[in-house]
Amino acid sequence: MKYSRVLGTGSHLPSRLMTNADLEAIVETTADWIQERTGIEQRYLVADGETCCDLAEAAARRALDAAGIQASDLDLILVATTTPDQVFPSTACLLQQRLDVHGCPAFDLQAVCTGFVYAMSVADKFIRTGAAKYALVVGSETISRILDWTDRTTCVLFGDGAGAVVLGAADEPGIISTHLHADGAYKDLLQVPGGHGNGHPEAAFMEMKGNEVFRIAVTTLGRIVDETLDANGLDKSDIDWLIPHQANIRIIQATARKLDIPMERVVVTVGEHGNTSSASIPLAFDQAVRDGRIRRGEMLLMEAFGGGFTWGSVLIRY
Ligand code: ACO
Fold this sequence. Notes:
By secondary structure, the protein is α/β, with parallel strands linked by helices. It has helices at 20-24, 31-38, 52-67, 91-98, 115-128, 152-155, 210-231, 249-259, 270-273, 280-290; strands at residues 3-12, 16-19, 42-45, 76-80, 106-109, 134-141, 161-170, 175-182, 190-191, 207-208, 241-244, 299-306, 310-317.
């Protein structure tokens, strides 16, 4: 039996820092409201001309360095993104060309904030079936480009960035299990209504009924935690680190309470990065690996919830 194992992580943030105080000049809000209701203090945004692929490339190169493999060793390139550079080619194909890799499958995966969890699950299946030995999984977003900067209920919440993981085949896990779900019945609560496909590209900006999303996110993430533990016969106390999607500190705290895990064992970056959608989990993961908090052999639980609705988890023996 083959498993996939995390060989290396990387991440990259764009250089334009926007604080809550900066937002006070753009929309009718206060730094305190944003901090108290979300935990966000600042976020990083792309500059003019900077793209999703630029962020993905920087994160990917760091992950490849950490993994100690060459880009030419890759058998699969997956980019989870909601904000691809172009309608096509996929950002994964653009990244493949930047890395000077030729021939291996490369594709984008769109599951909004759950995108990285979905992409890890897909890459894990490629490796378990023997279809790939080394896979690059990236979450990269320029969410700032699909925000309505006159809508204070959404524009204060998000940031840009990228995170990446290199997975390699191993005889022992590694990724223990992944759990994916979606329910399109909730499509109207969180959406970008316009697109080229429906003839309304001019309406390609995010709309969210934040309050309803919040309530459903808290209960759904509680359920996915139980599902993951039950599927593996594990107890809450077996989890060393929770690496949640970073949407709102209050949602993260609710999941931590459900797990009886102290906040010191939860990787929290929402204050510094805001919600970077599919990039948020790999950004947090890389930060905690590089600062020495997460160590080899520890049990990690990643969980995410986002537009669709989509939700899911990844359980990893790091
Ligand atoms: N500044 C000041 N006041 C504001 C702001 C703002 N930026 N935004 C909203 N308000 C006001 C509202 O108008 C409302 O005023 P009212 O009472 O006079 O009507 C009041 O603040 C409270 O608004 P709520 O929406 O009830 O505030 P809430 O505490 O729910 O926080 C938030 C809003 C932060 C959006 C929260 O609901 C949330 O985090 N939702 C979930 C987000 C999420 O997880 N999304 C999924 C992932 S994202 C993805 O997939 C792309």
